Amino acid sequence: MSFWELYSWERVRDKIRSLPGRLGFEKGDKLSFFGLTLDLETGYIYDNVLEEYLSQKDRIGMYFILSLYAETKIDVGESGEFISLRQICPFVHCPNLKKNIAALEMIFGENPKLLYTVAKPFDFKPADLGDAAIKVYALPRIPITLVVWAGEEGLPPSSEILFDKSAPHYLSGETSAVCEAALGLARALTGRLILKFAKNLEMNASAIEFGGCGYTCAE
Prior knowledge:
Oligomer: single chain
Largest sheet: 5 strands, antiparallel
Pfam family, one: DUF3786
Domain DUF3786: 58-181
Structural class: alpha+beta
InterPro entries: DUF3786
Strand order of the largest sheet: 5-9-8-7-6
Distance between the termini: 17 Å
Mean pLDDT: 95
Protein name: DUF3786 domain-containing protein
Low-confidence stretches: none
Strand content: 15-25%
Organism: Thermofilum pendens
Number of strands: 9
C-alpha cells in the first residue's frame, strides 16, 4: 500500500477526529492551526494564508502529520529549549526544503523585517533572534521558529529553522516518521511564506525558483 493510500482520509479520519479538546485543540467540528482550517466532516483543508483549498496530495501529507500527533499519549507541553532541524534529522536531507531555504534567504536577506509583514496571516509571535525571527505554531504543541540573518559584506544571508525540544515527542516514536513530519512542516512553512510574498506583490510565483509547499519532503 502506498503512502498516499495509507494516510487517506478514510483510513486516518477517526484518529484526526479524536483531536478536538485534546493536545491544545479547541472542541468543535473544525481544526484550526498553522493558518489552516480542516473540516472534520469532509476532510477538506482550507489554507487561510494562500486563500485556497489544499490539493488531495497536500491534504494527505497533513493527515499523516495529524495522525502522528493524535497518537500522543502524554501532553508534556513545550520545553522552552530549541532543537534545530539538523539535530532532528542529521542524516536526512530534503532537496525541496533546501531550495525553499535558498529562496527565502534571497527574499528576506536584504530586508529581514519584511518577514513580519509576509508572515502576518500565520498569527506568529516575534522571537528575539537573528535580524528577524517568527514563532509559528504548526500544531498547538509544535512551534517552529524561523530565524533570518541579513547578508553582510563578504557573508551571504542565512537562516535557521528551530523546533521546541519536545517536538519529537508529539510526532512519533519512530525517527523516520519524526523526520518526515518535521521536514514536511518546515517545507510547508517556508514554501507558503514564499508564495505569500509573491501574492502580496502580485507576481507570478513561477518566477521564483523554490521547492514548493507540500506537507511532505518529496512531491
